[in-house]
Amino acid sequence: MVARGIGILVFGxxxxxxxxxxxxxxxxxxxTARQLEQQLQPPLVGDTPNGPDRHxxxxxxxxxFYAYRDYKPAWVDQFGLLPEGAMALAAVKQAGNQGLRYAxxxxxxxxxLLDGVTTRPVIIGPAFKGKQVQLDLVVTEMVLRYARxxxxxxxxxxxxxxGVATEKAPARDLxxxxxxxxxxxxxxxxxxxxxxxxxxxxxxxxxxxRHQRIKAAGGWSVIDDGPPLEHGDCxxxxxxxxxxxxxxxxxxRAAALKAACFDDRLATAVAGFQRRHGLTADGVVGERTLAAxxxxxxxxxxxxxxxxxxxxxxxxxLGSRYVLVNIPGFQMxxxxxxxxxxxxxxxxxxxxxxxxxxxxxxxxxxxxxxxxVPSKIAREDLLPKIQENPSYLVRQNFRVFDSWDKDAxxxxxxxxxxxxxxxxxxxxxxxxxPAAHNALGRVKFMFPNEMSVYIHDTPSKSxxxxxxRPFSSGCVRVEAPLELVALLLRxxxxxxxxxxxxxxxNQRQVVILDDxxxxxxxxxxxxxxxxxxxHFREDIYGHDQTLLSAxxxxxxxxxxxxxxxxxxxxxxxx
Length: 574
What we know:
Elements: H1 2-39, H2 56-68, E1 76-77, E2 80-81, H3 83-93, H4 110-118, H5 126-152, E3 164-165, H6 174-183, H7 187-192, H8 199-216, H9 236-247, H10 253-258, H11 264-276, H12 287-293, H13 297-313, E4 321-326, E5 331-336, E6 339-349, E7 357-367, E8 371-372, H14 375-388, H15 391-395, E9 398-401, E10 410-411, E11 429-432, E12 443-446, E13 455-456, E14 470-472, E15 476-478, H16 481-488, H17 496-504, E16 509-522, E17 526-528, E18 534-536, H18 543-551
Parallel strand pairs: 3-7, 4-16, 6-14, 13-15
Antiparallel strand pairs: 1-2, 4-5, 5-6, 6-15, 7-12, 7-16, 8-11, 9-10, 9-11, 12-13, 17-18
């Protein structure tokens, strides 16, 4: 009877609560919407939303989100945090799996606000309602900033010195997309669709947890300094090598613990490691291979993180067909329908004349091109050779013009007082005529860009044999240019015979592409190959460190919202 009586009381209390809730839910939502709209008026302090402060990007997005919802709360009701709110916070908490930092999104007052709305007071007063409003704002701000960073990157590439010439526009309004996902009950889809959808990005992102697990297990061992290790060697350093390659998965753990000497299996594992790190795959652990082996796993994790950020900068649509040049990878790929149909080696800019990052379209190519020598190269590289012997110009098939004007006069190089010229005074234009030894080789591929770089052939073919190839003055030299020409012109009236005839003529010829080919010059020092193995490359321009320093700076800035509610939303750059 007692149990039955308690059950009746509980049922009656629940019924009364439901009746009370039904009567008050609309009033609560109306009052909360009014407070939210009031809170989202232009900030009471700081710059105005129309001012230069980029932190207001987040403010505007939050306003758009609530305006779409008529300012109704999204994540809380009168009883506390909704399941959608818990799902959203859990998703943001997984930022580390995307190479981002949860600390950049977590509002410092989040726990206090969660405790405040969980512990429901007997009498509902303004303070409790204020915390509900503020918690809803905080969750929205966290989700939208996280979504923006996954979609566009944490760092604006224009803010750091990287030679970046890409400008990415968001494919959708994230504030509206978030509001629509809540309206349709598809919040999980909203988070699943964040970030680049490129297979290369997803593969690199999946490699991050594996390296994080290696770190959590203690990392990999360091191999002591010493002479090169090669087939037949035995001793402690060989055991260290086996252990190191076993941890990173280059040799099976069981095999790593058995043989005490450098055998065929270990040599094969070393060669595979070398290929994945852009080293000469000779199976010998020399100085450069040892240095790569001893890079700590923490550094490799950071390398993956900065390259995930670079992918977030890239266009959403690379093109159904495109050319991808990875600058530190010294490699070009031609991709069609998601498949790599051609790979070739490249030579890229020296550190003092780096190849820029950019996206454009190859619109035309020149067979047997002229080389109009850039002024800087003429002054710094060619002038000393000309001053030593003016016949250098004749031997190398250069012509000299009195200016860069279209109607410039050609000059006799032997009538010029070259000794009177200097790097600060060089008024002439040099043009090298088409020939086999022309610096641009037999063909160049042109795409509009502010840096005046292009892809071209080269007579210096032997340089492609080297594993590291930063030798150019900024343009990209390609190993097999005529194969690239054939791919670009295969749907035009250009067969192999016509192409060979055009090259052999030594006459300059411009060919316009009927279908311009997208081209992306990227800077990736970590990626996952088709076989699922993570590759790493040397940071030839120091861009990794520059970007890492920017990523290590917090992007969240608290903005006071007045004294109405003592929990300022953490407005940060979106």
